[in-house]
Each structure stands twice: as structure tokens, then as C-alpha cells.
Amino acid sequence: MSSSLARILVVDDEPDIRDVIAVTLESEGYSVVGARDAMEAFHVLDTEPPDLVVLDLMLPAIGGVEVLDRIRDRTDIPVLILSALTSEDNRVRSLQLGADDYVTKPFSPRELVARVQALLRRSQRANPARTVSYPGLTLDLAAREVWARGSLVALTAREFDLLAFLASSPGRVFTRHQLLRDVWKSSSEWQQEGTVTEHVRRLRQKVEEDPDRPKWLQTVRSVGYKFERRTTDREMIAAATVTAPESS
User: Fold this and answer.
1) Over 90: is that where the pLDDT of 220 sits?
2) Which end of the chain is more exposed for a tag (fewer CB within 10 A), N or C?
3) 92-96 long-range contacts, Cβ below 8 Å, gap at least 24?
4) What are the pLDDT digits (tens) for 89-131?
5) Could you give the number of structural domains in the chain?
6) DSSP assignment, residue 169?
7) Same domain, 63 and 151
């Protein structure tokens, strides 16, 4: 992942801090979006998921720990904590809850850039595949875009994560419990298996040519779901002659 493509969300209630971070990271070629509180951060995470989050712990109303919990419930994108809390307990707790790095305020801009670069390199090595493509269906994992039969499909962040997870392991059957654990990153009591069923139903409405007779998202009775990778000879020929669509 080159820095010119990486999008970074900075969550901090201090505008001066957000501005300093934005100027610093944008000078290195990153795209930066700011959020002053948890609700603004949640909106960005739901609508335009970033490649990395720089997160302050001391936010108004909903604290940074709750934001970190929600991020980890939904995704494994890198999270760098940037906080005035300097105690070892705060560092350890943040890392145990899923943060990837911890930098204290006041901070060195050069060190922040180096930490961000290291986390993005690590993330790229952990997720080397950038596209998943089948005849009639293409997932751009970097841009988080899905093309079905040549048209861009509008998916929610969770719908994209679920489709990408299944399509990246074609033919493998996953129970609803496994999908809750691995896609939702949660085994909380409030997460019901019906949540998975509803998301699969909505995905079929959006990506399947005939949602009542799905080609890609197959139900395995009494077990769960799988992504079907088999294609017809005609589709294989078409796939060899048609290039993947590009976003405009």
C-alpha cells in the first residue's frame, strides 16, 4: 500500500491536534479525515472505512476505549492510540483491547509518521491480496468496492466485510457462529445468528442476478453459508475476454 492511497482517520476532540496531524500526514502523501468525537468517527467508519485510525482516548461523551471496541467488532484495520494518558496501565489495556500501537502526547511528528508507516506496512503484509475476482463479480479490497455484472454495487461496511470474507474462501462452509466471530469480531450475547441471515439476504438482493436462486451466496442446510466458486464454460470464456471495471 503506497502512502498516496492510504486514508487515515484522526479522532481527537482538540482541533489543533487534528490540524497538526493532518498537515504532518498529508505532507507524506496520506489522505486524512478528522473526527472530533465518537459519533463523527462512527459515521466515517460506516460510510468510508479508512486504512488506519489515529485515536485519542479522552473523547467527550463516548470515550476512545468504546470507539476502539467498536472498531475491533467490525474490522482489523490498524489503530494507533495517541493519548495524554502516559501510565503503563493505559498502554497495556489499550493494547490488550486491540490497539496496534500507543504514542503519548506531546508527540514527535516524525515519530508519528514512522509509526503510521510501520503499521501500514504490517497491514499490507497481513493482507496481500487486493482484489477477489470471479466471472461477473469483482471485489476491490483496497477501495472496498464491489462490481456485479459490470455495475458498481452500494454495500454497507458490514455487508462488504461479509462478502469479502466468504468470497476470499470459496467453497468453504461457515456456520453463522463462525461468521459472527470472524466478521463481526464478536461473540456478545446481543449478537444473534439471525443477524447473519439478514445480512446474507440483503447481500443476495444486491449482488445476485436472481436473489431467490442465488449463484454466489449459497445456504448449506442446517450448517451455514458458503461462497460458490464454480462457473460455467461460457462464463470462463467471458472472464478471459472482459477486463475488470474501473471506478470513475
Assistant:
1) yes
2) C
3) 93/65, 94/57, 94/65, 94/68
4) 888 988 988 899 999 999 999 999 999 999 988 876 655 557 7
5) 2
6) S
7) no
| CB 34, CB 23: distance < 8 Å | no
Q: For 173-205, what is each residue's pLDDT tens digit?
A: 999 988 888 887 755 534 578 889 999 999 999
CA distance linking residue 72 with residue 186, whole number of Å:
9
Contact 146, 163 (CB under 8 A): yes
Whether residue 156 sits in one domain with residue 94: no
Q: Which of 102, 126, 150 is the last residue of a domain?
A: 126
The β-bridge partners of 201 are none
Q: Confirm whether 247 is domain-assigned.
A: no
Task: Give the mean model confidence (pLDDT) for residues 40-54.
Answer: 87
If one compares 130 and 163, the residue with the highest pLDDT of the two is: 163
> In this structure, what C-alpha cell is assigned to residue 201?
439476504
Give CA–CA dist 71/99, Å, rounded: 10
Q: How far apart are CA 244 and CA 140, in angstroms?
A: 10
Match 461477473 to its residue by C-alpha cell: 136
* Residues with Cβ within 8 Å of residue 176, at least 6 apart in sequence: 193, 196, 197, 224, 225
State the pLDDT at residue 200.
Answer: 96
Domain end position, chosen among 109, 126, 143:
126
Q: Are residues 10 and 117 in the same domain?
A: yes
